[in-house]
Design brief:
96 residues; mainly alpha
Amino acid sequence: VINSAAQDMTQRQTELFANNCIQCHAFEPSGAPNIGDVNAWQQRSAKGEELLLRHVIEGFQGMPPLGYCSACNEQDFRVMVRAMADLPTPNTSEAN
């Protein structure tokens, strides 16, 4: 099942995701929370997107800084974090 955040990824982001994130987040022995594992992501997601993003950029425990993706920018990371953790995509079309 593809979540709505994953559907928001551009072709470039999909390739970055496949070439970087999947290396650890698709294999149980890596120790990283696996893509689609609701239980593994529930507590992490509850801490919010900003903290998850900071962990990706700075590194956290076994997560290397930038997830080894030197080609990724902040927007790439935001979209990929939302897809991996199944976080909602913010609605930016509403007027404040």
